[in-house]
């Protein structure tokens, strides 16, 4: 048996995103607040077709921030409802009615409407509850129903599975379950940090028919696995005898295993 370390493509350059996110609940409401002075620099940079509704900011209510790689983003937690305030302004001298599309990882999850009085600012509150940990991109697009303006903004948020160090462990088996004696079968092991702090070391245990074949520390790229990042390893298994064999992988076998409400195995350190 041999192990080859395979870094996820772009591990040190790009943040790992979970795109197959499920939205448990989502709701929106808005409230009108006092008039704010226009920001000319922002107005010039806007991609709107003309004077109208512009997005000024997206803020996670009551959240802390977390540094992942070179990026700093709001820290949220899965299975908890998070409120995100979206501040928009009507730069027109007339009241505007707008259509608002809300996207997670470019998937449209909600459409609502908004009314903003002339030269006024309104806050639209988006409530989200996500079931998948990882870095997810929230995009808000606002279009004036009169057709005079359109503006969109995107922002990354990190949804953690839990506070502290936690890893999600996945194993991808070969498509072919039948191999001849001596023939190689490649298994891919993927580990994701879904917690809030770096994981400096991880141990991998590999067993065949209940017998430990491999137990050792993984050599993590850069010496640690940061939150929101993943790393993959390939394990090549070769059966030496005929018959059915059960192979099993276990991450950090000496640590406490947690069964979270998603039914996923998480490792708490």
Q: Structural class, judged by helices and strands?
A: mainly beta
Secondary structure tally: strands: 19
| Cross-sheet strand order for the largest sheet | 1-16-13-12-19-18
Radius of gyration: 24 Å
Q: Report the average pLDDT across residues.
A: 76
What is the approximate shape?
Answer: elongated
Strand content: over 45%
Question: Count of helices?
Answer: 1
Main sheet: strands, sense, barrel: 6 strands, antiparallel
Would you write up a description of this structure?
- The protein is mostly beta strands and 269 residues long.
- It has 1 helix and 19 strands.
- The strands form 4 sheets. Strands 1-16-13-12-19-18 form a 6-stranded antiparallel sheet, with no helix packed on it. Strands 4-5-11-10-7-8 form a 6-stranded mixed sheet, with no helix packed on it. A 4-stranded antiparallel sheet has the order 2-9-6-3, with no helix packed on it.
- A hairpin with a 2-residue loop joins strand 14 and strand 15.
- The longest helix has 6 residues.
- The chain is elongated, with a radius of gyration of 24 Å.
- The two termini are 28 Å apart.
- The N terminus is likely disordered.
């Amino acid at each position: 048996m041999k192990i080859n370390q395979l870094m996820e493509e772009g591990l040190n350059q790009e943040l790992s995103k979970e795109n197959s996110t499920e939205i448990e609940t989502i709701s929106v409401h808005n409230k009108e607040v006092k008039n704010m002075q226009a920001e000319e620099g922002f107005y010039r940079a806007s991609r709107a077709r003309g004077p109208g509704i512009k997005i000024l900011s997206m803020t996670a209510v009551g959240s802390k921030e977390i540094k992942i790689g070179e990026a700093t983003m709001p820290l949220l937690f899965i299975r908890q409802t998070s409120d995100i305030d979206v501040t928009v302004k009507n730069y027109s001298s007339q009241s505007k009615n707008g259509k608002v599309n809300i996207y997670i990882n470019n998937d449209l999850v909600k459409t609502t409407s908004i009314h903003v009085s002339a030269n006024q600012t309104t806050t639209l509150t988006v409530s989200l509850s996500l079931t998948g940990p990882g870095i997810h991109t929230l995009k808000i697009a606002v279009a004036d129903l009169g057709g005079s303006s359109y503006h969109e903004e995107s922002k990354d948020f990190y949804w953690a599975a839990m506070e502290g160090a936690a890893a999600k462990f996945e194993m991808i088996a070969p498509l072919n379950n039948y191999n001849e004696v001596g023939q190689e079968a490649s298994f891919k092991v993927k580990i994701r940090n879904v917690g809030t702090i770096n994981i400096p070391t991880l141990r991998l245990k590999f067993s065949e028919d209940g017998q430990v074949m491999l137990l050792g520390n993984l050599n993590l790229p850069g010496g640690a696995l940061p939150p929101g990042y993943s790393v993959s390893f390939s394990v090549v298994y070769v059966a030496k005898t005929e018959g059915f064999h059960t192979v099993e992988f276990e991450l950090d076998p000496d640590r406490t295993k947690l069964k979270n409400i998603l039914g996923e195995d998480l490792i708490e350190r």
